[in-house]
Amino acid sequence: MFWSILIFLAVLSILVLVHELGHFWVAKKNGIWVEEFGFGIPPRIFSRKVGETIYSLNLLPFGGFVRLHGELTDDPSASSGQVFKKDRAFLTKSKLIKTSVIIAGVVMNFLLGIVAFAIVYSFSGIPKESGEVKVLNIATNSPAQDAKIIAGDIIKKVDGEEVKSVSEFVAKIETKKGKKVVLELQDRKVNITPRIEPPPDEGPLGVSISSTEIYFPPVYQRPFYGAYYGTKEAIFWGKNVIFGFANIFTDLFKGQAPKDISGPVGVFAITTQAAKAGILSLINLVGIISINLAILNIIPFPALDGGRLLFILIEGIAGRKVVPKIEAAIHTVGMIILLLLILAITVHDIRGLISAGSISGFLETMIK
Asked: Taking the model in full, what pTM does it have?
């Protein structure tokens, strides 16, 4: 249990600290007084003041915050008991500066995702198209097994037509279901009949194939390759997250409970499994979660970065500032809703583990 919790908190800390460091650094660069840099959600457990900033550890380890001077109030008596400094206050800065401070956390999470994926690619190799369709595995009692196809065979042609990628091969086989096909391999030809209705998780032939190979560039080139493919991976996951959120809202509008949502318990379980699979799997998971957090935070909901951006947009359209106390109250309500949502998702996670029959394994992990 100790190591699982330690790894979980380490992953959570990295994600939160990177996000909040974005806010912190950009605020400092623009002369804004950062009153507090906090990890977790209050109440406060421990704090220490270094320079003009209080660094705190809070009870609920599900997030973090950077408290900026004059962030949501222009009342000189309501900024942590400090004398109000107009030139150091967030509220008095231009819309451009406020926007840059707010989006800095999202940008940092996205960059963390890129770095995480870049590290994984640098050590595990770069996938590239080989121009050959290679057989990886054969299913038992499948047409491929009957035709004596073995792992390692290279499929050159389907009925005399050349194939160089998985998509080409799959497309051709789909049109041949129920018909005898001649596959030309690297050293022989075999006759095979693709199944019309294959078993679950098996294709018509019962083969696992790939047309990619792992390439290890020279060590000095790997950071550049890693950065390139890491960026592509981050964009890929970003699109998946956006479509995922779109499906969630679609389900909500239909009156259906969203599926495949994980809260703290679910993330803890997934993190534990990733850690068991190895350090690269854990780093890859950090990248995926970081991209998720970046997209989540930009949603225009109170208490999230997107919610704060929404108020700046409203201010720009209306030509006047939103009353700070009203904005603060809305963000407080938003935070309460988010905490209740985290609680609801946690209950959902536990029920999911119970229904899947994996709660005992999860509890064993917690006890160890």
From this structure: 0.71
* Domains in the chain: ranges and CATH: 2-122+259-367 (no CATH), 127-215 (2.30.42.10)
Which residue from 210, 209, 206 is spatially nearest to 139, judged by alpha carbons?
206
Rounded CA-CA distance 49/208 in Å is 58
Tell how many helices (H) and how many strands (E) occur in the chain.
Answer: 10, 8
Catalytic residue chosen out of the listed positions 20, 35, 36, 184: 20
Other Cβ atoms less than 10 A from the Cβ of 303: the count is 19
Residue 137 has φ and ψ, to the nearest 5°, of -145, 155
Q: What is the pLDDT of residues 36-86, one digit of tens each?
A: 998 887 889 999 999 999 999 888 776 788 989 887 665 544 445 567 788
Helix (H, G, I), strand (E, B) or coil at 249: helix
Largest CA distance in the chain: 85
**What gap in Å lies between CA 93 and CA 353, rounded to an integer?**
48
Q: In whole angstroms, what is the distance from residue 101 CA to residue 25 CA?
A: 8
Candidates 254, 287, 156; CA nearest to 209 is 156
N-term to C-term CA, the chain: 4
Residue 155 pairs with which residues in a beta bridge? Answer: 133, 185
- Residue 270's identity, in one-letter code, is I
Q: Give tens-digit pLDDT for 130-170.
A: 888 899 999 888 999 999 999 889 999 999 899 888 889 99
364 is catalytic: no
